[in-house]
């Protein structure tokens, strides 16, 4: 036996014993995420932390042991790392699992995603984190899943306040300058995106609360919050 084969054998013994020493399953389990979504809308879902640019062969999506198809005409299908719901139906609620295999390392990852489809009357369920701070100018970030949808699919942002459209506001982070009590309400970020030749809407809302008067030095904190725009963690 030559040296390289011997080294290979030693390597095999080490790796095998490392694996058998733990109860780790073959796939690394990633954090589970839950989404509450509106019936009739579309949803583009990338699991948190997934690599981007995967091919349909690198990943497989399942709902309760049934494989999700890759056919773009199916209401629920996947393409690359993303799961698409073209028209959310109550029966689409459930637990979805993606298994990703990295072809270069052979490593495997498991992503669990829970989806709950509700009718619009359950508004409160649908709210992402509320905005409540003492800043004079308020920044309302478009909630992550919708922001990501628009970025990935080159969609267009729109905003509603209490279901009424805000004219010519097409930014992902909505700024309300000199916010007053009148600005309180539910702000909905809507992304209109085109996929496979058709248009879809996805939305997500946040509530803005405006506290009493701001303390002195608000001008300073405003500048700081504008600067910090990029480092704010959304959700
Ligand atoms: C999901 O799978 C479990 C066990 O495999 C089964 O008991 C259950 O009926 C399934 N649910 C649906 C909605 O198919
Ligand atoms: C997802 O699975 C959990 C735990 O098994 C279960 O409690 C929950 O009801 C499931 N969610 C849906 C939407 O079926
Ligand atoms: C906000 O308030 C400041 C100070 O009262 C004022 O100078 C500024 O013009 C206001 N900005 C807007 C957009 O109303
Ligand atoms: C998206 O929303 C706009 C404005 O509410 C509406 O006109 C359009 O029909 C919607 N598109 C779809 C596909 O639902
Ligand atoms: C806010 O400031 C204005 C003018 O400085 C004052 O009239 C008002 O009472 C203050 N409101 C609160 C809630 O402190």
UniProtKB/TrEMBL annotation:
InterPro entries: Ig-like_dom_sf, Ig-like_fold, Ig_sub, IL-1_rcpt_fam, IL-1_rcpt_I/II-typ. Residues 226-235 have a biased composition (Basic residues). Residues 212-224 have a biased composition (Polar residues). Residues 1-21 form the signal peptide. Belongs to the interleukin-1 receptor family. This is Immunoglobulin domain-containing protein. The keyword Glycoprotein applies. It comes from Perca fluviatilis (European perch). Keywords: Disulfide bond, Glycoprotein, Immunoglobulin domain, Repeat, Signal. Gene3D superfamilies: Immunoglobulins. It comes from the Eukaryota. Residues 32-118, 127-211 form the Immunoglobulin domain. GO terms for molecular function: interleukin-1 receptor activity. Residues 211-235 are annotated as: Disordered.
């Amino acid at each position: 036996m030559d040296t390289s084969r011997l080294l290979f054998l030693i390597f095999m013994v080490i790796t095998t014993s490392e694996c058998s020493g733990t109860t780790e399953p073959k796939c690394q389990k990633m954090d589970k995420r839950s989404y509450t979504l509106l019936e009739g809308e579309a949803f583009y879902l990338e699991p948190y932390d997934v690599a981007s640019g995967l091919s349909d062969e690198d990943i497989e999506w399942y709902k309760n042991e049934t494989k999700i198809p890759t056919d773009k005409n199916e209401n629920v299908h996947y393409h690359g790392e993303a799961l698409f719901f073209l028209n959310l139906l109550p029966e689409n609620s459930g637990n979805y699992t993606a298994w990703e295999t990295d072809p270069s390392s052979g490593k495997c990852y498991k992503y669990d995603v829970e989806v709950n489809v509700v009718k619009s009357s359950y508004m409160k369920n649908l709210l992402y984190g509320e905005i409540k701070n003492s800043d004079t100018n308020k920044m309302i970030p478009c909630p992550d899943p919708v922001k990501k949808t628009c970025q990935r699919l080159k969609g267009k942002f729109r905003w509603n306040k209490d279901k009424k459209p805000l004219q010519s506001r097409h930014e992902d982070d909505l700024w309300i300058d000199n916010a007053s009590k009148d600005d309180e309400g539910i702000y909905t970020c809507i992304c209109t995106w085109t996929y496979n030749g058709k248009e879809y809407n996805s939305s997500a809302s946040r509530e803005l609360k405006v506290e009493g008067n701001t303390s002195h030095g608000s001008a300073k904190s405003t500048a700081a919050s504008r600067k910090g725009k990029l480092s704010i963690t959304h959700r």
